[in-house]
Design brief:
- This protein has 396 residues and is of the alpha/beta class.
- Helix content is 18%, strand content 29%.
- The protein is built from 7 helices and 26 strands.
- A hairpin with a 2-residue loop joins strand 8 (110-113) and strand 9.
- Helix 1 crosses helix 6 and helix 4 (228-239) crosses helix 5 (259-265).
- The model has no long low-confidence stretch (mean pLDDT 96).
- Bound molecules: adenosine monophosphate (AMP) and magnesium ion.
- Magnesium ion binds at residues 181-182, 226, 249-250, 256, 299.
Length: 396
């Protein structure tokens, strides 16, 4: 096989994909991908401020055993008062440090005697500038505070708010069509299927994984029977309104597996067809000549769900403009892992049992929806390796 590891296949296919365009975004930033930089509209902090509750002092007043009158105060939310030439000012965390103040003495380092204070520290223990946050020490006006390619979260929103940024350039969401295939699969979700029929579970797992990302917009979720012409026409039509099509089923070597042929008929460039992974080996990754993604996942529900998470989401993230689109999964120890190894990347269903600890979920195979439903995600064990790891863990 062309690629040894999943990420090699992803990187290779990513070169064929076209990122989506950008737009100005005024509201609902969360989960969207930033396309421009956010810059500081003023220094942060905007002025010298106190880092502590205490007393603002001039260095000339720092003397052994000095008793110093408290001449006033500087409170948060008020402009700076004048610094007295003799004595100190009471000052609060975040309040402006007035011109002429050289240091802040913490309250705990003073003896408070009503209208005056006595310093508990010796002059050698007080340094110029202590407990003062300088204007611009976090960022100076005009500097970059957020870079393009991030998925905007609450921390980013706080930074944006601090610098008065509400409208940003964002990548527009990637438009995705989900297309399940197979004559045995039906939309009788509520009714009882015949024994040779199946309820469509892939549409649910894939749509749910995609819907959790605000940088994805699901255009439609549909089903196609195993008919070459119908599959061709459906794909050709959905490509008009989608940036990517995620398919399940029909991707192997069976007589009814038309997905590879139809993708080629449509001019798709197949970057991989088959990867050394379990489950999900028959997976097909292709791109149209205008950079749209065609991902054919195997029909088995465990393969389709794992393949969507491990391969589909990163490729869509790349198209969505995310700079860190290759997954960086946290690692877990895999308790009770056994010592079996396989010559493939093994994506094992797992359940978290403690902080940083997971256990394999016993499964009858890639059609076992009970084991899928009992899992929190899967661990990725590299080829020929076994044991507790730690291994990367991909949560649902
Ligand atoms: P295929 O990859 O088309 O050979 O499909 C493999 C197996 O996956 C089928 O025999 C079905 O048992 C199952 N399958 C395919 N599509 C779905 C689906 N949408 N939902 C649930 N199971 C499916
Ligand atoms: Mg099929």
């Amino acid at each position: 096989m062309k690629f040894k590891l999943p990420n090699e296949a992803l990187i290779s296919l990513s070169h064929e994909l076209q990122p989506v365009s950008t737009e100005a975004l005024e509201t609902n930033h969360q989960g969207r991908i930033l396309a421009g930089t956010v810059t500081a509209d003023r220094d942060s902090p905007a002025a010298d401020v106190s880092a502590m509750d205490g007393y603002a002092i001039r260095m000339t007043q720092v003397q052994p055993e000095a008793s110093l009158p408290v001449m006033g105060e500087s409170a948060a939310g008020s402009p700076a008062p004048e610094m007295p030439s003799h004595g100190v000012l009471r000052i609060f965390t975040g309040a402006i440090v007035p011109q002429g103040c050289d240091a802040v003495i913490k309250r705990e380092d003073t003896e408070e005697l009503g209208s005056e204070i006595r310093l508990k520290l010796s002059p050698a223990e007080i340094s110029e500038g202590q407990h003062i946050r300088r204007a611009g020490e976090n960022a100076t006006k005009g500097s970059t505070v957020l870079k393009p390619g991030i998925e905007i979260n609450g921390a980013h929103k706080a930074t944006m708010a601090n610098f008065g940024c509400s409208t940003v350039a964002a990548f527009r969401p990637v438009r995705v069509t989900i297309l399940t295939t197979g004559n045995e699969v039906g939309t009788f979700q509520q009714e009882a299927p015949m024994p040779w029929q199946l309820r469509d579970s892939n549409r649910e797992s894939i749509a749910t994984l995609l819907a959790a990302r605000n940088w994805i917009s699901i255009v439609s979720v549909e089903h196609c029977i195993d008919d070459r012409n119908q599959l061709h026409d459906t794909l050709a039509d959905r490509l008009k309104t989608s940036d990517a099509i995620l398919m399940t089923g029909g991707v192997s070597m069976g007589d009814y597996d038309y997905v590879p042929d139809v993708i080629r008929d449509l001019g798709g460039k197949v970057v991989f067809h088959g990867l050394p992974i379990r489950p999900g080996k028959p997976v097909l990754g292709a791109a149209t000549n205008d950079g749209k993604l065609l991902l054919g996942l195997p029909g088995n529900p465990v393969s389709a769900t794992i393949g969507c998470q491990r391969l589909g989401i990163p490729l869509l993230a790349c198209m969505a403009g995310k700079s860190d689109w290759l997954p960086k999964a946290p690692v877990v120890q895999l308790a009770n892992s056994g010592n079996k190894s396989i010559p493939l990347t093994w994506l094992r269903l797992a359940k978290l049992v403690d902080n940083g600890v997971a256990e394999p979920v016993i499964t009858q195979g890639s059609g076992d929806l009970v084991s899928l439903g009992n899992s929190d995600g899967f661990v990725e064990v590299p080829p020929q390796q076994s044991g507790e790891g730690p291994w990367p863990f991909y949560a649902w």
